[in-house]
Design goal:
Blueprint lengths: L1 H20 L5 E2 L2 E2 L36 H5 L9 H14 L1 H4 L29 H10 L13 H16 L1
Antiparallel strand pairs: 1-2
This protein binds heme C (HEC).
């Protein structure tokens, strides 16, 4: 009788010990019966920040992704060319681009000899690139040319694009 009692107790204890060693994440199914410090809303290392709430737009606005020239080609130039914005485009071009590309776009700006001579953007393949492509080059740079997204705003880029078109026709 004693023997049966002892062996039953041993079996019960062994079962409890083994089940105690099992990984316990503090829940049964979807229900938590215990929350530990690791169950908290703070970011874990390497965890990406939370997605914004659906349907919201950051106050800074979205930066449109332009991964390659094909995507750039699909951009539509929203600005028409008229004498008023032509003057604005010329001024912006001279401020941001002229020192390297030259006021006529021939690649003969004052900085060109000490930096790297830029291509003549008034001829050759630049006659065939889309407005979107030029916009993309201004925003994200090209080769050694720096990106100007911080200095030249979206509508200013289109003004400059239109000015390059005027230079190409001169
Ligand atoms: C600091 C000098 C510098 C400034 C400022 C600069 N560029 Fe450039 N740009 C270059 C150089 C150098 C290249 C050639 C890059 C290369 O091939 O690695 C180039 C290339 C280009 C190209 C040809 C890209 C291609 O497809 O090969 C275009 C178009 C262009 N620039 C437009 C502009 C416009 C518009 C601005 C003004 C917003 C501007 N750049 C400002 C130096 C400059």
């Amino acid at each position: 009788m004693k023997y049966i009692l002892y062996s039953t107790l041993i079996i019960i204890f062994t079962t409890l010990i083994i089940s105690g060693c099992r990984h316990d994440d503090g829940r049964v199914g979807e229900h938590y019966y215990r929350t530990d410090m690791h169950e908290q809303p703070s970011y874990k290392p390497q965890e990406s920040p939370r997605d914004p709430v659906e349907g919201t737009i950051p106050v800074t606005g979205y930066v449109m992704e332009i991964r390659d020239s094909l995507m750039a080609d699909r951009l539509e130039n929203p600005l028409s060319r008229n004498p008023e914005n032509a003057e604005l485009g010329r001024r912006l071009y001279n401020i941001h681009c002229g020192m390297c590309h030259g006021s006529g776009g021939k690649g003969d700006g004052t900085v060109a000899p000490v930096f790297q001579t830029p291509p003549d953007i008034t001829q050759g393949r630049f006659l065939n690139v889309t407005d979107g492509y030029l916009y993309w080059v201004i925003r994200d740079g090209a080769g050694i040319m720096p990106a100007y997204y911080e200095h030249v705003r979206s509508n200013e880029r289109w003004l400059i694009v239109n000015h390059i078109r005027s230079l190409q026709q001169e």
